[in-house]
Amino acid sequence: MIKIEKSANEDFIKKSISHLEAHGFEKIKADIDGYDCPKSYLKRGSDTKITPDIVAIKNGKKYYFEISLKSDRPLLLKSKWLFLDTLSRMNSNRFKIITTKGHYKFTDNMLEDINLSDKTPIKI
Q: Which residues of 18-35 are buried (b: 16+ CB within 10 A; e: fewer)?
């Protein structure tokens, strides 16, 4: 999700972190209070910072998790997902999308629009 929506959806991020901890993820970093902040990346040619919602490690592999909730700014969200997918593939890491009831169709449409339809969202 984009930066301006994170404070409004902090409860869902915490719920996602609990889900990941239950599935064996460690060293979880999240872009909310109480957790270490993941590394941010600066987009060239603008002042836009891209920060993954959640970063965790499992079995020595780094996973980037992005929370998918309906957004008023889908273009910004699409560029963030494409960047994180490319970054994860470059470094042999993993990129996953987390979504919840009521947001499945939005997530599937977004993934289809940016040719990431091979990704299966984690449904919480």
A: eebeeeebeebbbbbeee
Give the Cα separation of 6 and 51 in Å (integer): 11
Write out the two tokens for 93.
């890491």
pLDDT in tens, 67-124: 998 888 888 889 899 999 999 999 999 999 999 988 999 999 999 999 988 888 999 8
The total of other beta-carbon atoms located within 10 Å of residue 99's CB is: 24
Domains of the chain, CATH where assigned: 3-123 (3.40.1350)
pTM of the entire predicted model? 0.90
Please name the residues in contact with 60: beta carbons below 8 A apart, sequence gap of 6 or more. Answer: none
Separation CA 25–CA 41 (nearest Å): 23
DSSP letters along 57-112, please?
EETTEEEEEEEE---S-HHHHHHHHHHHHHHHHHTT-EEEEEE-TT-HHHHHHHHH
Q: Is the separation of the CB atoms in 34 and 4 below 8 Å?
A: no
**Would you say 17 and 65 are in contact if contact means Cβ atoms under 8 Å apart?**
no
